[in-house]
Amino acid sequence: MKTSASYLEKVYPLRAGASYVIRAILPTDKERIIGLFNHLSPESRYLRFAHAISKLPDDFLEDVLDLDYQKEMALVAVIQTDDGQEEIIGIARYVTPSGQSACEFSLSVSDDFGALGIGTHLMQELISYAKSNQLSEMLGYVLSANHKMLQLVTELGFQIENMESDSEFNIVKLSLSSRS
C-alpha cells in the first residue's frame, strides 16, 4: 500500500518566476486547508459543495486529513508565502467506496489562483496516482452551472452525462484502465 511519503513532490511554474509544489496532503495541513476554504468566494464554495457553506465541517476535515493513500488520496498545491510559510492554493482528492474500483474526485483551487493551470495539474497528478493504485474509473458529480469544471474535465478526457435523477448535476467519468 502506498503512503504519503511514496508520492513524489512535483514543482510547477507559476507567474513572475514563482512556482508551486504539488504534494500529498499531510495530517498537519488542517489550518492550511481551512485557509484555502477561506480564500474561496461564496460562489466557488457553492460550486464545490453544491450548497451554501460558510465553514468546513469538522468531519470533512478529519476525512481529508486521515487517508489510507490507496483507496483515498488528496494532493495539494502549495506556495511559499513571503514569510516562508506554506499556503495551500488548491486541493484534489479521490475516495473509493468499499469494495469498488471506481473512485470519486473533488477539486478546489483558490480564487486568487484560478485559470493558471493549477487545477489541471492537480487532476493530472490525481489521475496518475489513481491509475497506479489500479483503480478502474474516476468520476465526479459536477453542477451544470460549473462551466469551468466541465471544461477542465472535458480537456482531461472525461465523458459528461446528464443525471436523469437531478438535472442540476452532470456525472463526469474517466476510464483509468484505457489511459496511459
Fold topology:
Blueprint: E1 10-13, E2 19-24, H1 30-38, H2 42-49, H3 58-65, E3 72-80, E4 86-95, E5 102-109, H4 118-132, E6 137-143, H5 147-155, E7 159-162, E8 169-175
Parallel strand pairs: 5-6
Antiparallel strand pairs: 1-2, 2-3, 3-4, 4-5, 6-8, 7-8
Tell me about this structure:
- The chain has 180 residues and is an alpha+beta fold.
- It has 5 helices and 8 strands, in the order ββαααβββαβαββ.
- It is globular, with a radius of gyration of 16 Å.
- It has a single domain (4-175), classed as 3-Layer(aba) Sandwich (Aminopeptidase), CATH 3.40.630.30.
- It has helices at residues 30-38, 42-49, 58-65, 118-132, 147-155, and strands at 10-13, 19-24, 72-80, 86-95, 102-109, 137-143, 159-162, 169-175.
- A hairpin with a 5-residue loop joins strand 1 (10-13) and strand 2.
- 27% of the residues lie in helices and 31% in strands.
- It has an 8-stranded mixed β-sheet, with helices on both faces.
